[in-house]
Specification:
The protein has 215 residues and is an alpha/beta fold. The chain has a single domain, classed as Rossmann fold. Helices cover 37% and strands 19% of the residues. The chain has helices spanning 7-19, 52-60, 104-120, 139-151, 167-181, 202-214, and strands at residues 22-28, 41-46, 78-83, 89-93, 124-132, 155-160, 192-193. Strands 1-3-4-2-5-6-7 form a seven-stranded mixed β-sheet, with helices on both faces. β3 (78-83) and β4 form a beta hairpin. The longest helix is centred in the middle third of the chain and has 17 residues, at 104-120. The protein is globular and about 40 Å long. The protein binds guanosine-5'-triphosphate (GTP) and magnesium ion (MG). One of its GO terms (cellular component) is cytosol.
Length: 215
Amino acid sequence: MIENGSEEALAEEARRLFSGRVEFLLSAPQLKFLPAGDYPEVAFCGRSNVGKSSLINAVTGRKAIARTSVTPGRTQELNFFEVGEPTRFRLVDMPGYGFAKAPLKVVERWRSLVRTYLRGRAVLKRTLVLVDARHGLKDSDRDMMTMLDEAAVGYRVVLTKADKIKASELAATCERTATEARKHVAAYPQIHVTSAEKGAGVDELRAAILSDVRQ
Ligand SMILES: Nc1nc2c(ncn2[C@@H]2O[C@H](COP(=O)(O)OP(=O)(O)OP(=O)(O)O)[C@@H](O)[C@H]2O)c(=O)[nH]1
Ligand SMILES: [Mg+2]
């Protein structure tokens, strides 16, 4: 499945990389502040409060490198993190979508920033579309997935907060989400199930990210 060696070797390399240098690079409130596209990037996107920043913390094994909050709309810029010494790739923490309480003007600004970045970034190797395991796909996720299909940006659907529901419900949501993902041309058929809280699925996601940035 993987080009250079076995899956275990990939997982081991991913573990080593993420336990080494991970550094916040910059926060871009507008497109003109984006860093030069010097390294491969993987972007974390999804509805407000789905757990994007928490999953970046879990994947990087840092408690608070990305800022989290119980209040939706915490992340309002594109936040870039560098991984590796020397830098191998960057993770991007995106502002959330589907946040009904934010002023329309603000929503529009985030939306346009996120879309323009996702559509036009040559170094973007993969997008992770995070979906709350308790709720499954919402129309705002479907809109995002369709936009990524059209932009031909490959993405993985990642269920978050898996610790918050029963295993049986989780299995059902996972199945439903996979069925729907198969209809999207740019979606990976396999769904990732994660818990930033408990660490479930995090090793697998690290390995997936490394294999994505290698391509
Ligand atoms: N139980 C549980 N709670 C989680 C998990 N991941 C995130 N949370 C909680 O969900 C809330 C939102 O998490 P964030 O990581 O800030 O979410 P976000 O998607 O970055 O939110 P915005 O930046 O506002 O779009 C916080 O209270 C987290 O503690 C998880 O795996 N399990
Ligand atoms: Mg956030």
